[in-house]
């Protein structure tokens, strides 16, 4: 899946835990410094935010009209 914000997308809206977290961390490991990835979820991932902050990643969250949380994560 591609997205205008970044080519690196994890669409986890229909995944069961812990798959969204696992796929997000795997993709983060493939990113080069300065690259971004987009995580799509139907719930806000507060535990993930803590892990991102602890590992020095920046993120921005946007709630879309359809209930999707778009989390843009920078490496």
Please describe what this structure looks like:
With 75 residues, the chain is α+β, with helices and mostly antiparallel strands. It has one domain (9-74): TusA-like domain (Translation Initiation Factor IF3). It has helices spanning 19-30, 46-54; strands at residues 9-11, 36-41, 58-63, 69-74. It has a 4-stranded mixed sheet with strand order 1-2-4-3, covered by helices on one side. The protein is globular. The mean pLDDT is 94.
Beginning-to-end CA distance, first to last residue: 20 Å
Global morphology: globular
- Placed side by side, the strands forming the largest sheet appear as 1-2-4-3
Query: Which regions have little confidence, pLDDT < 50, spanning 5+ residues?
Result: none
CATH topology: Translation Initiation Factor IF3
Instruction: Please give the share of residues in helix.
Output: 25-40%
- Whole-number tally of structural domains: 1
CATH homologous superfamily, by name?
Answer: TusA-like domain
In CATH, what is the class?
A: Alpha Beta
Number of E-type strands? 4
Q: Please work out how many helical segments DSSP would assign.
A: 2
Question: Residue-averaged pLDDT, rounded?
Answer: 94
Structural class: alpha+beta
Strand fraction equals 25-35%
Order of helices and strands: EHEHEE
Q: What's the architecture in CATH terms? A: 2-Layer Sandwich
